[in-house]
Amino acid sequence: MQDVVQSPAVQSEQSFVDRRQPGGARKEGGERRQFVDSRRNFRPEVIELAEAVDQYKLRHRRRFITFEELYDVIAELGYSK
Question: Rounded CA gap, 36 and 58, in Å?
């Protein structure tokens, strides 16, 4: 009978330590938002749109949105063509 030798890939899988926070929470306590750091330089209309997009992402659990979803957000703010 032959001896079974574990490959290095199997050994590394067994020693994996999952260091992620339970529930996906970040250590700093908040979620990353796309526009948070640079909003103070924006016009008020742009800030309103950025906040509406962030709220949409949170409500729908989306990291990125499509153009159609962006249009829906803009329409919710009162835009019509």
Answer: 14
3-class secondary-structure state, position 75: helix
pLDDT at 25: 54
Q: How far apart are the first and last CA of the chain?
A: 77
The first and second tokens of residue 44, run together, are 């008020």
* Whole-structure pTM value: 0.53
CA 20, 31, 40, 52 torsion-angle sign: positive
Token representation of residue 41: 């330089």
Kindly write down the DSSP assignment for every residue of 40-71, as one continuous string: GGS-HHHHHHHHHHHHHHHHHT-SS--HHHHH
Instruction: State which amino acid sits at residue 29.
Output: G
C-alpha to C-alpha distance for 55 and 58, rounded to whole angstroms: 5
CA distance 79 to 71: 9
